[in-house]
Design brief:
With about 280 residues, the protein is of the alpha/beta class. It has a single domain, classed as TIM Barrel. Helix content is about 50%, strand content about 10%. It is built from 13 helices and nine strands. It starts with a helix and ends with a helix.
Length: about 280
């Protein structure tokens, strides 16, 4: 798969972060929750508070990869009438307000097929979306969506788990665009008390076969954990912990503070910035 416009915008975000000696921060915001208007405000607030890329969830009735926090949020959004079309409209509004940050849809296969793969990718391109993460789409079955993404300038990002075989790692790293999504644990999303002990080995195993950025998600619940993951990977994805804040009073202020705290924990001291850049280079060689 050749580079697309979306992949180039995503790559530029990782390069900007790397030039600052740090990993890229990628918060997750489910569109439509707690209301469509609030989700829009939260998405923009996350970017303003330090997000380098933004993952936007398209609610689905059977979110296999998501834990109870995100399941509850997506079900709430569906009850309020959120649709794929409305998600596209919200993404376009975010793009108009934030022209630089890459926007990545995270959604499941069925709504994309119902919309039509070519039509969906075209609509994403018009809305200013840069990439897609489809958790229930293995690369073995992704040929048609990959072609639709190529034709509309989108990056299709695949996922790897700690149990992925060497053959699967090779396939995913070859086919994934923009970055490779590393699931930190076997299981569903949700905050956890500690990071898995074999995370570093997993990241290094994948890094040995690709120069593409590696972003780690699932289970990252605090700035401290984000900082730990940032020392291993090129990107840190935070979802459930942020979604829980979105349900609280004064949600926008709390999300701003939380994202800023994540970003701060991932940023080296100024005197160590050069060392951070050297480490970022080392991780790719």
């Amino acid at each position: 798969m050749t580079d697309s416009n979306g992949a180039q915008r995503i790559a530029a975000a990782f390069e900007r972060a790397r030039a600052q000696g740090r990993a890229a921060l990628i918060p997750y915001v489910p569109l439509g929750h707690p209301t469509p208007e609030t989700s829009l405000t939260l998405a923009v607030a996350a970017i303003e508070s330090g997000a380098d890329l933004l993952e936007l969830g398209i609610p689905f009735s059977d979110p296999l990869a998501d834990g109870p926090v995100i399941q509850r949020a997506t079900q709430s959004a569906l009850k309020q009438g959120i649709t794929v079309v409305r998600c596209l409209e919200l993404a376009q509004t975010i793009r108009q307000q934030e022209p630089e940050a890459p926007l990545i849809f995270m959604g499941y296969t069925n709504p994309i097929l119902a919309y039509g793969e070519d039509a969906f990718c075209s609509a994403c391109s018009v809305a200013g979306v840069d990439g897609l993460i489809v958790p229930d789409l293995p690369p073995d079955e992704g040929t048609a969506l990959e072609a639709a993404c190529r034709g509309t300038g989108l990056a299709l990002i695949y996922m790897l788990a700690p149990t992925s075989t060497p053959e699967r790692v090779q396939l995913v790293t070859e086919r994934s665009q923009g970055f490779v999504y590393l699931v930190s644990v076997n299981g569903i999303t949700g905050p956890r008390d500690r990071l898995p002990p074999d995370l570093a080995a997993f990241v290094e195993r994948v890094r040995a076969v690709t120069a593409k950025p590696l972003a780690v998600g699932f289970g990252i619940a605090s700035p401290k954990q984000a900082g730990q993951v940032a020392s291993l990977a090129d990107g840190v994805i935070v979802g459930s912990a942020l979604v829980r804040l979105a349900e609280e009073a004064d949600a926008v202020s709390k999300v701003r503070s939380f994202v800023a705290g994540l970003r701060s924990a991932m940023t080296p001291l100024q005197g160590n910035a050069e060392a951070g850049r050297d480490e970022g280079t080392r991780r790719r060689t």
